[in-house]
Automatic annotation (TrEMBL):
Originating species: Fervidobacterium pennivorans
Keyword Lipid biosynthesis: no
One Pfam family hit: DUF1576
Keyword set, alphabetical order: Membrane, Transmembrane, Transmembrane helix
Protein name: DUF1576 domain-containing protein
Residue spans crossing the bilayer: 45-67, 74-91, 97-113, 120-138, 144-166, 173-191, 211-231, 252-277, 307-323, 329-349, 379-399
């Protein structure tokens, strides 16, 4: 059933791209492949709605076929990975720049003698560093050396991702984004040292709002209805999903079932779309990418209960800091900042708010470390927030427990 779902969403995006792009698709795809695509580069703006959505749908289709060829039994992590790729294929990933990263991860897998499936999802999420491919390969015409360097970057992702997980203990859902941020930070430093780093950019599409809104509401409504149909047209069982903290790896397909998972994906997608439009922002490549990632991780840890506190925290930051609350940075921080949902799920509403608030400040600063070449910048920021908060939360819990113990002793003495 999950394969049918993944093939459906891929086809839905491809069809939308073909209908809106028509005969211009080849030239639009060529524009996407050749253009610098570090943060924030909206493919909808530089190539058009058709080219951007065709690129997104085709990438989702190719990665789904890869799962099929490797005979993977798909679960929630498959949905999260493919939908995240599709979301970022609207602003950073394309039909060329993802494959050297994937090849590098597979090369590592072969060298250490593991099955290709072992680090498959590291390869999928590792495409966060795809803009480095474009920068190094097309920065000075076509560079073979650039491809070799990107292969090496992919090669080092698996061991670094395993280590990064121990740092935040699974409380940052975008673990590979955190890993990619570290790699991107060192690559950015080296490029800066030789004056080869890219300059900051913000390409942000603001047109076609009715068309994109209809597409998003239709898409996630179909997903939601599909889930309801599988669940016998009932919401029963959905509350079970709310009891999980969301900490990696909380795979809702394995822990509950496909029907409940699809319902959760649909709900989060619709809520994300309503939020973007409700605050007066725009539906475009980056925001739709954020909504797709939010919804995709509705199969791998996120649900309304653990997402809400983080969103509240980011909003408090957005309303009180120097950034307009509906600015691109803050809107994306709300959508992607839900990477910290497990903190709220495990430690409660208040700590989720604190995590979101800290994230709203940190995320606008860490991007300069990798010059926007790590597309999962919120995952990079989220990792630091989790590392910072976890020992503090533990300290507060210890203080609380000792205080209660003393209070209990005092009561017994009286």
């Amino acid at each position: 059933m999950i394969y049918k779902f993944l093939f459906f969403i891929s086809s839905f995006f491809i069809l939308f791209g073909l209908v809106t792009g028509n005969v211009n698709i080849p030239s639009q795809i060529a524009t996407i492949i050749k253009s610098p695509d570090y943060l924030i580069t909206d493919y909808v703006e530089i190539a058009g709605v058709g080219g951007a959505f065709f690129n997104s749908g085709l990438l989702m289709l190719l990665f789904t076929i890869l799962l099929k060829l490797l005979k993977v039994n798909p679960t929630g992590v498959s949905i999260a990975a493919v939908m995240t790729i599709g979301g970022f294929a609207l602003f950073g990933k394309n039909l060329f720049n993802v494959w050297p990263i994937v090849a590098g991860v597979f090369l590592y897998t072969l060298v250490v003698g593991e099955n290709l499936k072992t680090y498959l999802y590291v390869a999928f999420f590792g495409t966060a560093l795809a803009p480095i491919t474009t920068h190094l390969v097309f920065g000075n015409d076509f560079s073979i050396l650039g491809i070799v360097i990107v292969l090496l970057i992919g090669f080092f992702l698996p061991p670094l991702a395993s280590f990064a997980l121990t740092l935040h203990k699974g409380y940052n859902l975008y673990n590979v984004g955190f890993t990619a941020g570290f790699l991107g930070m060192f690559i950015g430093a080296l490029l800066r040292a030789y004056d080869l780093h890219p300059e900051p950019r913000l390409i942000w599409h603001e047109k076609n709002q009715f068309l994109l809104a209809v597409f998003m509401f239709l898409f996630f409504s179909i997903v939601l209805i599909f889930g309801f149909r599988l669940n016998g047209w009932k919401l029963s069982g959905y509350k079970n999903i709310l009891k999980y903290s969301g900490k990696l790896l909380t795979d809702f397909v394995l822990l509950e079932n496909e029907a409940i998972t699809f319902i959760n994906v649909g709900i989060l997608g619709l809520v994300g779309t309503i939020y973007v439009l409700g605050v007066g922002s725009k539906l475009n490549g980056p925001t739709i990418g954020g909504i797709m990632t939010l919804a995709g991780f509705g199969a791998l840890g996120k649900h309304p209960k653990n997402v809400l506190p983080v969103v509240v925290g980011v909003l408090i930051g957005a309303l009180t800091n120097s950034q307009p609350f509906n600015s691109p940075a803050m809107v994306l921080a709300v959508l992607f900042g839900t990477t910290l949902a497990p903190i709220a799920g495990e430690f409660g509403f208040l700590w989720g708010v604190v995590a979101g608030y800290l994230h709203s400040a940190l995320v606008i600063n860490v991007g300069s470390l990798h010059f926007g070449m790590n597309l999962y910048n919120n995952g990079f920021s989220g990792g630091f927030v989790a590392m910072f908060l976890l020992p503090i939360i533990e300290a507060f819990r210890n203080i609380k427990n000792k205080f209660l113990e003393r209070l209990k002793r005092s009561g017994e003495e009286w």
